[in-house]
Amino acid sequence: MPTFPHEMLREIYEQPDALRRTLALYLAGHALKPQVAAELESWPNAAGEVLIAASGSSRHSGLYGEILLEDLCGLAVDVEYSSEYSSRGGAGYIDVRHPSVLVLSQSGETTDTLAALAEARRQGHKTLAITNHAESTMATEADISMPLAAGVEKAIPATKSFTCQLAVLYLLALYEGARLSRMDSATIAAHIDELLALSATVASQLDGWREQAAALARKYSAAATFLYLGRGIHYAIAREGALKLKEASYVHAEGYPVGELKHGPNALVSDRVPLVVLATADRALDASVMRYEKTLQLLADMKAQGARVIALANTGDTQVPALVTDCVFVPPASEYLLPILEVVPLQLFAYFMALEHGVDVDRPRNLSKAVVEK
After folding, report:
1. What are 229-263's pLDDT values in tens digits?
2. What is the CATH number of the domain that holds 298?
3. Nearest Cα residue to 310 out of 339, 284, 349
4. CB 3.0-4.6 Å disulfide test: which of 182, 186, 330, 364 passes with 341?
5. Does some domain include residue 369?
6. 361 in a structural domain
C-alpha cells in the first residue's frame, strides 16, 4: 500500500476513485442519464457558440474543452480568462452573439470567475457551471450545474479536481454530440466504455509513474526552467504541466504549442532549460498521426541541437525514445482521452520536483485554494 507524506500525493492517487464517482453522476450503467440531457436542453446557443471563462488550472481544462466541443460537436468555442472577460466592455456592453457561457472552478467561489458569471448573466446568456462543490455560489447562481465528485481537495495544487473536470467536459461533449445528432448511439456507447475504463488504467500505472517521476526529478532538479510542448488538445496539458511545476516547486516553466518552439522560445533551450514534450498519438485518427509525425520531426531537430528532452509517449512506441533523453510511457487511448492519462505523470513530476527543492508542496507560498478578494 503506498504511503502518502503529503495531501498532494494522496490526491493524485485518489484520482481513479474520484473519476469513478464523478462518472456515476452522469451515467446510468453504460448510457448517458436522460435527466441530465433534459437539463442541458435549455443551455445551448442556437448558433452553436460557446464561451468558456476560467482561471488557472480550470482555464487549462477549458482549453481542453474547446478542442473537444469543436472537434466532436462542431461548436464554435472561445476560451477567456475570467479576469479579462469580466472587465470587458463596461456596463453597457452586450455581446450580440449571446453565446452559451461555461464557467469552470474547483471551489465554485473564485472571485474572477464569479464576476465572469455575473457578467454573463447580466447580458442574458445561458450559463453552465462545472465545480467541485454542488452548493457553491457558482453552482447555485448558474442556470445549470454539472458538479464533480472529486471529494475534498486539501492540497493547493489541483490534481483530482482537474482530471474530473476533463471527464465532465468529455461527458458534456457526448451529451451535445447526441443532441446535435453528431454521434449515433453506438458511437456514444463506445466513448462511454473507454471513459469508464480510464479509472482502472490510471490506477494500474500510478506506482510506475511515481517511481519514474521521482527519478526524473532527481535528474533534472538543477534545471532553471522547463518548456512544456503539446499539439492540439495536448497543448492544454502542456500548459497545465507547466503551471503545476511552477506552483508546486517554484521552478519556472512555460507551456507552448509544439510548432511555436522555433518562433522564439528555442533560444532558451540549453542544458539548463530542458523540454517536456507530449508525443502521444491516437493511431486510429489521421489528424492525430499527422500531429505525431510533426512532433517526431521536432524531436529529431532537438536531438541534433543537443537539447535535453523528457517525452510522454504511448506504451510500445520505439520512435520517440530513440530521439529523447528520457521517456515516460502512457497506455494507448483515443485522442480526446489521452490528456487524462498524460496529466497524471506530469502532476507526479511537479510533486517530486517540489520535494527536491524543499517546498511545502501542499501549501505553496502566496497561493490559496480559492482565489478570493480580501
Report:
1. 999 999 999 999 999 999 999 999 999 999 999 99
2. 3.40.50.10490
3. 349
4. 330
5. no
6. no
